[in-house]
Structure formats: C-alpha cells, structure tokens
Amino acid sequence: MQRRIAPRQTREKKSEDSGRKYHVLLTAAGFNQQWLARIAYYHYCKMKEEHPNSDMGGFTRLLHTGEPDIWMDVIPTFVALALPPGVDKGYIVLNRPYGILQWIEQEMHKIPEKYVLISEPDHLFVRPLPNFMVGNKPATYPFWYIQPYENRALIRKIVGPIPDEDFEHIHKIGSSPLILSKGDLAKIVPSWLNVSVVLKNNPESDQTFGWIQEMYAWSIASFLEGIHDYVLVKDMILHPPFDSKLGNSPIIHLTYGMTLAKNGKFVRNDKAPWIFNKRDYSSVPPPRNLTPPPNGTTNEVVIRVIKLINEATSNIPGWDEYAQNSVDRCCRFDESAQ
C-alpha cells in the first residue's frame, strides 16, 4: 500500500519568483540509497534555509521498493509499489519509472510547484540549483556515455524507422537530474516505462545498454512523445574525481570511486592508500568523521564530498546508532601502497 508522510520542515518562505519553483522528486531503493538519501535531504534542507528565495520548492523521496524504512518520519516520503515479481528480470531500475508513474497519478496534483526536478540519492547540493528551463524546454545534463546516434540501428529495431536527421532530437540524456513541467512529466513517464520494459526484454538492447538502459529509454520516450528540445546544461553536475574544480555547479554526483595516492594525486588503483566509494557502504552506512583526502590533494570536488558527508553525519541526530559497527573505509589499505 502506498504511503506518503507529510514534510516536517518549516513552511516554505515566499520566493521572489515562486512561478519558477520546482519540486524535488528523489527516487530511491536499496540500503546504500537509504543513507545517501538522508544525507542528500540534509543538504537540501540546508540550501532551503540559507537561500529561501531560490527556485527550490518542496521535497519528496519516492521509495519504489514497496516498503517503508527508518527515515519515513524524517524525510517526506511516498512509498510506491514495486513491479510484480519477474517483470524487472533483476533490473531493479525498472521500478523507477513505475514508481514515478504512481506518484504522478496519486500525488503530483497535490504539490503547488509547476515544475519537478527528478533527482537521485547520490546527488548532493552544494548550492541551490537554478531552474535552468527556457520557456517550456526541460533542462538537464548531457551524459557523454549516452550515444543514441551511434546506436541508431538498434533503436530503429525497437521503435521503428527514424530518419538520421531526427536523431538530433534523441538527446544524450537520462532522467536525472532533470527539471521539467508537470505536464511534460505526465506525458513522458508512461512511455518511459513502456520503452524501458521493451529494452529490457530485447536481448540485444539489454546487452548493449546494460545498466543505463532506462536512461536511453527516457531519451527515446521524450522523442516519441514530442518533447524534442532540451536545455543542456554542462555544468549542472560534477563527477569526482574526474571533475576537480567546483566552479558554479550546484550538484555533485557521487557515482565513481575516488582513489588517491599518498601525494593526493588521482590514481586508477583499487588498492590506493585513500579511497572513497559509496559501494563500500552498501550494507552499513559510513561512520561520522571519514578520513579526509591526503595532504597535497588539489581536487576541490573530492575534498568537498568528504566535507559534505562529514557535515551531514555530524548533524543528523542518531547517526552513531544508525551507523553502528561501521568502519571508515577511506584508509583501508597499507599506506605504502601507491
């Protein structure tokens, strides 16, 4: 049974331009996303408090597991039913469009904002995210690894004949971070779910697109539903350790492992002296006071990541009990390793 817990945060202060506000819809499933979502919510609340006139509106965590969790009375949450057994074929991400579809049908009409930001638990705010939309054009980040044109033959097998020139409207994007109108969200999501299921059930597309097939599904569904123009914002998010300067980007995306040598330089070595990888905390959340990067580290984004996590865990009540028996895995190897 779906359940939504009303926010406990203070009432929203009036924005200078309330018509630009978006509702943050953070989708989550699995334990490692549980603790990440709590940290993400902490930094969302901090941004809201420090910047009351920003474009940031309300917040909903969408749990597409079908089950409530420990943070239900802290984070405004909607619990969506998971797909029937066997439908996802082990690809749990299929529950994401299905969960958002349920939220659209049951909850979206209750929010005052005109726009929605689709977000994920590993998206940490470092400053308020502006509503980058231009007119009615949705705004999102272009992912370099989404290549619709290069996969046009396969996409044509799935959706039918598409002229080469039309592939410029099948963008190199996924479903998050993405800001769009509630109307466009309601238009795209049913098609997104359908295309996602088709891609998963086609052996060739399942193998070719792998874990990111729901991202391709969003791009294809947008095209099929006539949403052809996007505002592509290259500095919308940062990807440490490959991005090293904070600049003006509002979001840090914690997707890649960060491995540093003793001198603070980035190395591709899973036995480096200093490592942060969210996957190391898949069963137990990180403890307070993670070890900061080594002296000599010049990567501003990696440094900020650990500060963001440590700030949140130091201020979230009950974190020590929540992270009981956890260990700091940032310095888990012999310091003689290079």
Kindly describe this structure:
The protein has 338 residues and is of the alpha/beta class. It has helices at 31-50, 95-106, 152-159, 182-201, 203-209, 213-224, 300-315, 319-322, and strands at residues 3-5, 22-28, 56-63, 77-79, 115-119, 123-125, 139-140, 178-181, 231-232, 237-238, 251-253, 258-260, 274-276. 29% of the residues lie in helices and 14% in strands. An eight-stranded mixed β-sheet has the order 1-4-3-2-5-8-7-9, sandwiched between helices. Helix 1 links the parallel strand 2 (22-28) and strand 3. Helix 2 (95-106) runs antiparallel to helix 4 (182-201) and helix 4 packs across helix 6. It is globular. It starts with a strand and ends in a 16-residue tail after the last helix.
Which H/E pattern describes the elements?
EEHEEHEEEHEHHHEEEEEHH
What is the typical, i.e. mean, pLDDT? 91
DSSP strand count: 13
| Oligomer designation | single chain
The first-to-last residue Cα distance is: 51 Å
Query: SS-based structural class?
Result: alpha/beta
Spatial order of the strands forming the largest sheet: 1-4-3-2-5-8-7-9
Portion in strands: 5-15%
Shape: globular
Q: Main beta sheet: strand number and arrangement?
A: 8 strands, mixed
Low-confidence stretches: 1-17
Q: Nearest-angstrom radius of gyration?
A: 20 Å
Q: What level of helicity do the residues show? A: 25-40%
Number of helices: 8
